[in-house]
Amino acid sequence: MAxxxxxxxxxxxxxxxxxxxxCRVLGIGEILKPxxxxxxxxxxxKGCTIYERRPRTCKDFYCGFLVMKDxxxxxxxxxxxLILLFDGEENRVRVHVDPxxxxxxxxxxxxxxxxxxxVVAVPHRTQIIVRIGDHAFAMLPDRDIDLGVLGDDDVIxxxxxxxxxxxxxxxxxxxxxxxxxxxLRRPSPWLVPGE
Length: 195
Prior knowledge:
Number of helices: 6
Low-confidence stretches: 185-195
Strand content: 25-35%
Largest sheet: 5 strands, mixed
Structural class: alpha+beta
Number of strands: 9
Radius of gyration: 17 Å
Shape: globular
Strand order of the largest sheet: 3-4-5-6-7
Helix content: 10-25%
């Protein structure tokens, strides 16, 4: 989505303020900053020290709290310790967790809300993926799956198995050259939760 499209969707009255969690939890390829590590250009609690020259990834980024009107104030990343991203290309909701508080996603009210999204996601085969640095978990309505550390050539896929009780979903990581990874290249039918 283009930056202008996202800007038009910003919730009125919401801004980053002193929150700099995205500068910590997200990877930024242009400056080779890995996920889960502080950005060397971030003045924690104040903002970016190279704001006018920041990478395109940073210029185009708005977290879920800034664009989802249904999220209450407790979802502000500085409070929740969670950064929400909605990746339509991969049909995925990503929840990036502050590595200093790795269980933040399991606290309430966050865990229950993420589980609600997991239920809504099932018919659309949308993935709810929790990332703590390079470590990932997949959330399904009935369980959470520890996917372990994701390598550069790993992708996350959803598989379906027919059983006498109906379809059972499983989420696993595979190499990007695995034929199952091709399913990720289909267009996403799912919208941002709450829309």
